[in-house]
Specification:
2 domains, Alpha-Beta Plaits, binds zinc ion
Length: about 400
Amino acid sequence: MVSTSLSPLPVDVSRIRSPIQELQPQLVAWRRQLHQRPELGFRELLTAEFVSQKLTEWGIEHQTGIAQTGIVATISGRQPGRVLAIRADMDALPIQEENDVPYRSLHDGQMHACGHDGHVAIALGTAYYLSQHRQNFAGTVKIVFQPAEEGPGGAKPMVEAGVLTNPDVEAIIGLHLWNNLPLGTVGVRSGALMAAVESFRCTIFGQGGHGAMPHQTIDSIVVGSQIVNALQAIVARNVDPLESAVVSVGEFHAGTALNVIADTAKLSGTVRYFNPNLAGYFARRIEQIVAGICQSHGASYELNYWHLYPPVINDPQIAELVRSVASDVIETPVGVVPECQTMGGEDMSFFLEAVPGCYFFLGSANPSKNLAYPHHHPRFDFDETALSMGVEIFARCVEKFCH
Ligand SMILES: [Zn+2]
Ligand SMILES: [Zn+2]
């Protein structure tokens, strides 16, 4: 289901759009500079320095070193009023870039393969625009540059460090450049947008022996295989079929030779779901299955379980704000994709647990320019035209929310 946005644009569009369009070459330049120097989570030193330098240059008050490398900029409008936060993540991935572009990564084995370089450029552009147009809003905007989204997670320590207080943030918005959607679209919905992320590691201890004499052994591969199969029944048979959930085993390591029964097997996997009421359910159910199958074979086990990120849940009112602004900004017939959802996860969820808000996807794929590789691919890149669209959506959200 898609809505169209062919209605006439509001009169004030060019007032906001023209100065932002003028920023586009700068946005591209900043994004490419950041792209050349990707840094992994909590090591975003050059990135933070880049951000801080720009903010200082523009006279924007900001605090550095929050949750190690995070930054919060504060921009006040013409008079006190509502407080809106905008969040951008800054970290890159441990991937060797395979793109042959002039702005290719200079850091071996590290790459902005998720588009966070673009997120920083958009947030900087928004900061600049707002600082130059303070008369257009009443209230305060906090721009949160967050470390380590890809792991281990910088949002939670930033919330704990108090970035949403003093002054108290009333709502937060954020975006992800999204190659799963074409350029000229925005994916937004109220309620769950992205899934909770949990993971587990399990070691099964059996008893090794000769492949021809299984009766003298406890075969950890047979036990592990039954566990992998049984785990699939959690989603298929235990979770309400109207809910969405995933249990995927991504690793299974066991054995050293074809005629030797392996005494240990290690498997690990990831769990995803949207409904916050399911928090805790998968951890319990997985342990029951592992324990039951191990016990029935005389094997023992060690199980570790991690609750990484809660689901990304958008507030209906703030989602409506983003949706209405996006449909003014995006002029393509497809426009706003209202029921966009993914089982991917994001630690934006920690901000959204603390205050109402909306996270949304900004379409950035352009197959005609060969810019459609998926996120986290060594050839990932996006259509930079999306950068000024991102700034315009943020700027218009501020002007509408802080009026
Ligand atoms: Zn990513
Ligand atoms: Zn990302």
